[in-house]
């Protein structure tokens, strides 16, 4: 289960195809390949010794860092608003006596989307 959550998060970054694998052996192979992709420059004035200068792993980290402010995955304010909408919907159901039923038909699941207005506090 946690591997699916991790894969979902990786794909939400737009970099999933570079990071998600399907077996333990692929995971090990991918980790070793990423680690081996790092390039270390020869020691020189002004260059911190031991710091990688390039490679696929560094490029993935760079792309993730540069795009994080535009990714919904890192929009914690949006995530929090939507979580609060879900809490309000669950509270309303409890107050109205409409607790969850098994399954996920229209009446059983709470779905929250960004296009919904702000939630209204329940008295």
In short:
The chain is 49% helix and 0% strand.
Task: Present the secondary structure layout.
Blueprint: H1 2-12, H2 16-19, H3 24-36, H4 56-67, H5 76-95
Describe this structure in words.
By secondary structure, the chain is mainly alpha-helical. Helices cover 49% and strands 0% of the residues. It is built from five helices and no strands. The radius of gyration is 22 Å and the shape is elongated. The two termini are 37 Å apart.
Overall strand count: 0
Low-confidence runs of at least 5 consecutive residues = none
Terminal Cα span: 37 Å
Structural shape: elongated
What's the mean pLDDT score? 81
From the structure above, extract its key features.
single chain, 123 residues, mainly alpha, 0% strand, elongated
């Amino acid at each position: 289960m946690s591997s699916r959550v991790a894969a979902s998060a990786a794909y939400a970054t737009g970099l999933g195809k570079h990071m998600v694998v399907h077996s333990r052996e692929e995971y090990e192979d991918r980790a070793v390949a990423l680690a081996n992709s790092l390039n270390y420059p020869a020691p020189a004035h002004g260059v911190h010794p031991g710091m990688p200068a390039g490679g696929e792993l560094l490029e993935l980290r760079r792309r993730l860092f540069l795009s994080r402010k535009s990714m919904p995955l890192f929009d914690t304010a949006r995530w929090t608003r939507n979580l609060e909408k879900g809490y309000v919907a669950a509270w309303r159901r409890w107050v109205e006596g409409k607790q969850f039923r098994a399954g996920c038909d229209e009446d059983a699941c709470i779905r929250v989307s960004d296009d919904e207005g702000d939630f209204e506090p329940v008295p």
